[in-house]
Amino acid sequence: MMTTTTPVKAEARNLSFFYNGGNHALKGVNMPLYENKITALIGPSGCGKSTFLRCFNRMHDLYPGNKYEGQIVMHPDNTNILEKSVDPIEVRMRISMVFQKPNPFPKSIYENVAYGLRVRGENNKRMLDDKVEEALKGAALWNEVKDRQQDLAFNLSGGQQQRLCIARALATDPEIMLFDEPTSALDPIATANIEELMSELKNKLTILVVTHNMQQAARVSDYTAYMYLGELMEYGDTDTIFTRPTRKETEDYITGKFG
Amino acid sequence: MNPQPQANTLKNLDEVRAMIKRHKLNDYIFSIIGLLCLMVGLLTLLTLFIDLILSGYPKLLSASFYTDFPSRRADSAGLLSALVGSSLVMLVTFFSAVPMGVMAAIYLEEYAPKNWFSDLIEINVSNLAAVPSIIYGLLALGLFVYILDFGQSILTAGLTLGLLILPVVIVATREAIRSIPIAIREAAYAVGATKWQVVYDHVIKYSFGGILTGVIIGMARAIGETAPIITIGALTFIAFLPPSPITTAAPFLNFEWLSSGFTVLPIQMFSWLSRPSEAFHVNAAAAGVVIILVTLLMNGFAIRMRYKMRKNIKW
Ligand SMILES: Nc1ncnc2c1ncn2[C@@H]1O[C@H](COP(=O)(O)OP(=O)(O)OP(=O)(O)O)[C@@H](O)[C@H]1O
Ligand SMILES: [Mg+2]
């Protein structure tokens, strides 16, 4: 089987998470992310998908009182990125994120893509130009914006803005990219664009995507995880999960009987 | 077809219409009361303003009013020293209140841990904005004049007014910062930005319009303040200008003006008003119009800047 030969890029080990108020949002999740694969996270609203995703770039550290337990280990360096001694900024430099709603900065298209590099102290104009072009191409946006890179990002359509956000996340050569329902605000054509994009991106990096759309999970992902009430109920390769799930709940959710 | 329910519907419809009419009466009544309230306020102010213009217009239109020093003779008394004094005091106010207020607000919003202590500070900053200005004058008299020995100078006045508008600047800045969506912040943090990078590259830039508006509104308040300036002992009759801040010889800047005596517009107005002679009251009215116009201009500028700054930022 493929599973045994593919290297693991990162894995959650007995990961629990508590929100400030004490809300126990994740309960002992164990899950691998295979390298150069797309892992989809499905489950009913409020089950903890976003919470899980945001552990991977320590987004929860921005708000006081949140607490992690367990580990997320990244390979090949075996770093537990939840360790207190690991700076969340270092983690975010290795793992980038695309949000549910497009959230470009009120700056030019160029500056949006270049921002991740600027943050890293890159100021060489030639270098930035090249990287921005590469990222825009990687996000399949280059042809549409190459002549107006100095325009405000807000003037792009919703789908273009989301691809711009992907370009921004891509420009810094991340090892893993996190997508939190990246197409839920988009029309079917823009959605298809982004799905195609993800399939191409996985040649370069590892992807974890949250989606509410079963077809999307089935179409783009290699592995699927079904979560319910903060627990990982079932995990496996996507074909198996969608054709022969072992648990009744998973089947009910996938077929739309529940959730 | 059954005619019974049809008749019923019609009857009900009439009732509904009658009810809507009754309810709508309240709309009319309220809009009339509201309009009256608005008019009372606006008309009073307008009358006051027009009255000032009418009594002050001979002076308002004469150029020498703006270039003459005060004088014992009403017709040759002018606003020059008050205009220069107000401008220089405002300069000090600006450079003391703005950096301090903006930095304090950024600290409170972005860096300060959220606990009971920061809540306490937050409440007190808002309270400070409501402290009567004469209290600031007393504080300044004790601190700047007696303890720090700055004298009854432009520096003292500027710092006093700076303290006075500090809470306004802090509150306006915090509001501007808070209006930046969380999604934008998270986007910046997600690519690996540090707190300072988020503040410098995003927070300050996107809240600039709001900060500027707050600063100008604060300054517009400060320019009309009289009580604290009298408390620290501004002169009411002053026939000289402070040393010029800009010089022809290097280093081109001169800070002697900071320790100079001074007067400001509202004090000049007050001193003319307290003269028994009618002729001086014309001067006072004209000075009043100048103060109002300067305030209106500043507020208008603030509104315009806000509009311009927000044009490119949509949230
Ligand atoms: N900031 C927060 N503070 C406290 N509890 C939170 C917070 N954010 C989310 N939660 C709770 O944590 C649980 C998981 O939320 P999460 O956002 O991860 O769900 P989700 O699976 O992403 O749902 P959706 O599909 O609707 O986005 C929910 O019960 C939610 O109410
Ligand atoms: Mg979610």
Key traits:
heterodimer, A: alpha/beta, Rossmann fold, four-stranded antiparallel beta sheet, 11 helices, 36% helix, B: mainly alpha, MetI-like fold, 2 domains, 0% strand, globular, binds magnesium ion
CATH topology of chain A: Rossmann fold
- The run of helices and strands of chain A is HEEEHEEHEHHHHEHEHEEHH
Provide the residue-averaged pLDDT of chain A: 91
The unreliable regions of chain A are: none
Structural class of chain A: alpha/beta
Measured by DSSP, the beta-strand proportion of chain A falls in 15-25%
User: How many discrete domains of chain A?
Assistant: 1
Q: How many DSSP-defined strands of chain A? A: 10
Q: Going by CATH, what is the homologous superfamily of chain A? A: P-loop containing nucleotide triphosphate hydrolases
> Based on CA inertia axes, which overall geometry of chain B fits?
globular
Distance between the termini of chain B: 55 Å
Considering residues with a beta carbon less than 8 A from a beta carbon on another chain, report the largest interface and each chain's count.
A-B, 27 and 22 residues
What coarse outline of chain A follows from CA principal-axis ratios? globular
Distance between the termini of chain A: 32 Å
Q: How many distinct beta strands of chain B?
A: 0
Attached small molecules: adenosine-5'-triphosphate, magnesium ion
Report the CATH architecture of the largest domain in chain B: Orthogonal Bundle
Task: Estimate nothing, just give the exact number of structural domains of chain B.
Answer: 2
What is the CATH superfamily classification of the largest domain in chain B? MetI-like
The helix content of chain B, as a percent range, equals: over 70%
* Assembly status: heterodimer
